[in-house]
Amino acid sequence: MKTHNIFKFIHVDACRLFIKQLTVISLALCFFACGDQVINTEKSTSDSNNEFKLTLTISDEIVRLDDSIKLTAIIERKVHKDSIAGYVSMKMILDAVGGTIDGHSFSSASNITVAMDDAVESKFQALAFFLPKYSYNSSKNEYYSFMEKGHVSASFDGISVSIPINMVEPR
């Protein structure tokens, strides 16, 4: 009759349990770390005057030449409409260097009609996309005639904001 060392079996079972726990923890960590909110590439800038606040937000400061990024311009009223002395042109302008603006709910990026309530903290939002300008030679598989650094800007009631954008060739 052969005797077995019970401590040897306990050690092997403990190692197996540890490996199983480590695997479950690693999978859980990977699952939660791979969510969309881990890396926030959104960039925003704002400025204001006595009556309004203008905020420009881009979804990413790096755009591939064959892709686009989302732009959001928000105008917020800081005072009631009746408190504003003088004329305010309710027109906003979105502009781009190195690409074009493709508007979502307006026909011309240089003439966006702003409509908002008269109350304080009323907001107007314009959604658009920035599309890089470039040329492509399919026989050589190369991109040319593009800017590596561009800008998007928004203007309203004497307020102007701008954000730089880096344009890169697709992989």
Instruction: Write down the domain tally.
Output: 1
CATH superfamily placement? Immunoglobulins
Question: What is the class in the CATH system?
Answer: Mainly Beta
Read across the widest sheet, the strand sequence of neighbours is: 1-2-4-8-6
Q: What does the overall shape look like?
A: flat
**Number of DSSP E strands:** 12
Beta fraction: 35-45%
Mean pLDDT: 87
Give the count of helical stretches.
1
What is the ordering of alpha helices and beta strands? HEEEEEEEEEEEE
Major β-sheet annotation: 5 strands, antiparallel
Might you state the CATH topology name?
Immunoglobulin-like
Describe the structure.
The chain has one helix spanning 6-33, and strands at residues 43-48, 52-58, 62-64, 69-77, 91-97, 99-103, 112-113, 123-132, 135-137, 142-144, 149-156, 159-168. 16% of the residues lie in helices and 43% in strands. The chain starts with 5 loop residues before the first helix and ends with a strand. The mean pLDDT is 87. The chain has a five-stranded antiparallel sheet with strand order 1-2-4-8-6, with no helix packed on it. It is α+β, with helices and mostly antiparallel strands and 171 residues long. The protein has a single domain, classed as Immunoglobulin-like (Sandwich), CATH 2.60.40.10. The protein is flat and about 105 Å long.
What topology emerges from the helices and strands here?
Elements: H1 6-33, E1 43-48, E2 52-58, E3 62-64, E4 69-77, E5 91-97, E6 99-103, E7 112-113, E8 123-132, E9 135-137, E10 142-144, E11 149-156, E12 159-168
Parallel strand pairs: 3-12
Antiparallel strand pairs: 1-2, 2-4, 4-8, 5-7, 5-11, 6-8, 9-10, 11-12
